[in-house]
Design brief:
Strands 6, 7, 8, 9, 11, 12, 14, 15, 19 and 20 form a 10-stranded antiparallel β-sheet that branches. This protein has 3 domains: 2-329, Beta-galactosidase, Chain A, domain 5 (Distorted Sandwich); 344-641, Aldolase class I (TIM Barrel, Alpha-Beta Barrel); 646-738, Immunoglobulin-like. It is of the alpha+beta class. It is built from 12 helices and 36 strands. The radius of gyration is 27 Å and the shape is globular. Strand 1 (2-5) and strand 2 (10-14) form a beta hairpin. Bound molecules: alpha-D-galactopyranose. Alpha-D-galactopyranose (GLA) binds at residues 348, 378-379, 388, 423, 490, 492, 533, 535-536, 552, 555.
């Protein structure tokens, strides 16, 4: 609910557990009033009436007034600290006093309130256009507050879209140059947040290839801590989400936690700024490192959304809000399909580039026999692609591998009752390719300067419309011709030498190009699903999830490493988007030998996939795989759509215990994996959550054998009677069903 008091000129935004308030001051500036948890007994018309008379930003003991908490911080008005927007104007539309010179460009922007309106159809920039409905399409209120510089002809609209049931406000900016000259934005965040002083404990993730999503918790000092990507994808190094709380005031299931995530997959930045006064601000949006947003006369720009929220129930509460928001309001959910993500087979680690019809057909028969529902052919099926040195860009079937074309394999996969999927990396080209030989000018580069290759590839210039169009036509033809149900959409390098026909706008144009390709393909082929991959988990965010169904989280498939990666992933992203494979006993990334049970127990925590060399498995092993897959299909509705609790995090006792429970408490899945064995230490029993106290639950093992029976009350007070001293690699997945 959004309300405005015309007397105090205060806006109150009310969500299920939280509020957000700001006020128009006597100079028509927007000042942040507060953001936090509402008292439990608050009535819907309980509001805050404005700033307290003791304004912290104008204290008697200081002559500096730049602590003023403007809702939008603009360079010129607030120069000493980070601004949300920094604009450069080529002229000053005012007469100069005698002896003055113009001091161009003018870097002074001041935004003053003009009007506001509450609407229910507002969309942030780069919102999906594929038209596939998300699960929950009920309209949401958006407050739009229009501001203008008193002198320059620039309008800025601050947008706040409310998802009250998850305590989430999406924030974005709409910019409009109504003047006669081009205005450039050197800094353009999607919004800035003001948090209560002392909210300095930051939870985030870091990583690299094969080690994505490592969780970290750190205490911020005075100054600015920056998380960012400086490439054309979201980044392995970190990920655009955060949680913040007062140190000691929040834990997994308790305490006030602020959280945020960017709906954007390119060069982004989140700057956590603690002022000397301990005021805490978060600025997030386009990375200003090389971006420059030029607004021509009459041009408008709408930024993507910064998804923000605050909750009273700890880091777990923040994660569950992110999950539910993504599941219900972000993910495309075609009604044509079964509700759940299919069990996939991907032959990358079984075949690498050694593809043939016979080999793939045999894999597909074994995969189908064990219960796989989607068969995906990975890299190597096209052009001259016999290694990663050649072929990218030539999206035509490799005749030496598939002399009869791909049709025979597709037909076999369909005959076996599976869907067919294909790996593509549409943004890239190998210099050793027909495409590059025909169009060496189609890649990012500065003419006459070196073109640095990474994994022997260069990046296509999506600033050129003809390039995006060319790629669309190729992918469109592939989907139509081979009845493709699934693309694994990869992106395997960082950006260097970002020279483009689009100039510095390439950072945004590339992301817009990728999104538009996905949106157009999905609109034209409603049966197509897409998995986002970028050398593993390099492109995961709330923006890409608006047009992809799942993501590849990491090339690291070692279950013990994976358990940490998945825990970090679960901080912000839901299990139904997390593709997780069971691969070989002898792991290809780490060389570690791990049991099949452990590998399945870890992979079944997300969207199960199989990546093993099935042709080298015995009949008995294949039967074991089949038994696990059948089990996964029984627990899948709970894993993919349930509410997730991290009952025990790795950092506590070296084990990870996760529960998924259906909202009505009728079924749950309990999963434990021991990563480190601390000799002599017994872990506490993990108490389940979200069950019904009065109900009785049967606890079933993989083969549906009832191993225990207890009431919800007992399970939520005493926990499950399982071993709490376990060796490294001990794992268990149990299915709880109300009887
Ligand atoms: C990337 C992906 C892998 C695989 C290879 C193929 O590294 O993350 O899963 O698809 O490319 O070259």
């Amino acid at each position: 609910m959004i309300s405005f008091n015309p007397t105090t000129r205060t806006f109150n935004l009310h969500l299920q557990n939280s509020y957000y308030a700001f006020q128009i001051d006597e100079q028509d500036r927007l000042l942040h009033t507060g953001w936090g948890i509402r008292p439990r007994d608050a009535a819907s018309d309980d509001v805050v009436s404005g700033l307290s008379p003791h304004l912290p930003f104008d204290p008697p003991w200081s002559f500096i007034t730049q602590y003023r908490p403007d809702e939008i911080l603009t360079f010129g008005d607030v120069t000493a600290f980070q601004a949300t927007l920094k604009a450069s104007f080529p002229t000053l539309p005012q007469p100069l006093a005698a002896g003055e010179s113009a001091h161009l460009p003018v870097r002074d922007l001041r935004l003053r309130y003009l009007s506001h309106v509450i609407v229910t159809d507002a969309q942030p920039g780069l919102a999906p256009t594929h038209g596939i409905p998300v699960e929950n399409t009920t309209p949401r209120e958006t407050l739009r507050v229009r501001l203008k510089d008193p002198v320059q002809a620039i309008f800025v609209t601050l947008c706040y879209r409310l998802t009250p049931e998850h305590d989430i406000i999406e924030r974005w900016l709409e910019l409009e140059n109504a003047g006669a000259e081009t205005v450039t934005l050197d800094v353009c965040y999607f919004s800035s947040l003001h948090l209560p002083n002392g909210t300095t404990e930051l939870t985030h993730v870091t990583g690299t290839w094969a080690r994505e999503f490592t969780p970290h918790r750190e205490r911020l000092g005075i100054g600015t801590r920056v998380l960012e990507s400086r490439s054309l994808q979201t980044s392995h190094n970190t990920n655009p989400f955060f949680m913040l709380n007062r140190p000691g005031h929040a834990w997994e299931e308790t305490g006030t936690v602020y959280f945020g995530a960017l709906a954007y997959s390119g060069s982004w930045q989140m700057a956590f700024e603690q002022l000397p006064t301990l005021h805490m601000r978060v600025h997030a949006g386009y990375n200003p490192s090389d971006d420059q947003l030029a607004l021509a006369p009459g041009e408008r720009h709408t930024t993507p959304a910064f998804v923000t929220g605050v909750c009273p129930d700890g880091w777990g509460g923040a994660s569950r809000r992110f999950h539910a928001f993504t599941r219900e309001r972000v993910l495309p959910r075609p009604v044509r399909d079964s509700r759940f993500r299919p069990v996939l087979y991907n032959g990358w680690e079984a075949s690498y580039f050694d593809l043939s019809y016979a080999g793939q057909a045999e894999l597909s028969r074994k995969a189908a026999a064990m219960g796989v529902e989607l068969f995906c052919v990975d890299d190597g099926w096209f052009g001259a692609r016999r290694s990663d040195h050649a072929g990218l860009g030539d999206w035509f079937v490799r005749a030496d591998a598939f002399p009869e074309g791909l049709e025979a394999l597709v037909a076999e996969v369909h005959r076996l009752g599976m869907k067919f999927g294909l790996w593509v990396e549409p943004e890239m080209v190998n210099p050793d390719s027909d495409l590059y030989r025909a169009h060496p000018e189609w890649v990012l580069h500065f003419p006459g300067r070196p073109r640095t290759e990474s994994r022997n590839q260069l990046i296509l210039d999506f600033g050129r419309e003809e390039v995006v169009e060319y790629i669309f036509n190729l992918l469109d033809t592939l989907v139509g011709r081979y009845a493709i149900s699934f693309f694994k959409w990869d992106m395997n390098r960082l950006a260097t030498e970002p020279g483009s026909v689009a100039g510095q706008a390439i950072w945004r144009r590339h992301v817009a190009g990728v999104y538009s390709l996905m949106d157009r393909l999905r609109a034209k082929h409603p049966g197509l699903d897409i998995q986002s991959c970028s050398g593993g988990g390099g492109r995961v965010d709330v923006g890409i999830l608006g047009r992809t169904d799942q993501v590849w989280v990491s090339d690291n498939t070692d279950a013990l490493d994976r358990i940490r990666i998945q825990e970090g992933y679960s901080l912000a992203y839901p299990a139904r988007t997390m593709e997780a494979w069971v691969t070989h006993e002898h792991n290809h990334q780490t060389g570690r030998v791990l049991s099949l049970g452990l590998r399945f127990d870890v992979a079944m925590r997300g969207v199960l996939g199989i990546g093993s060399s099935l042709n080298q498995l015995s009949e008995a092993e294949l039967a074991e795989y089949a038994r696990y897959i059948a089990f996964y299909k029984r627990i899948r509705p709970v894993v993919q759509d349930g509410v997730q609790y991290r009952l025990e995090r790795l950092e506590e006792f070296g084990a990870s215990v996760v529960e998924y429970v259906l909202p009505d408490g009728s079924e749950a899945v309990f999963s434990v994996v021991v990563r480190e064995y601390l000799i002599g230490v017994a872990r506490p029993a993990a108490l389940l959550k979200g069950l019904r106290s009065a109900a009785t639950y049967a606890i079933l093992d993989r083969d549906e054998k009832e191993i225990y029976r207890a009431t919800g009350y007992e399970l939520m007070t005493l926990g499950l009677p399982l071993e709490t001293i376990g060796p490294v690699g001990y794992s268990r997945t149990l299915h709880l069903k109300r009887v």
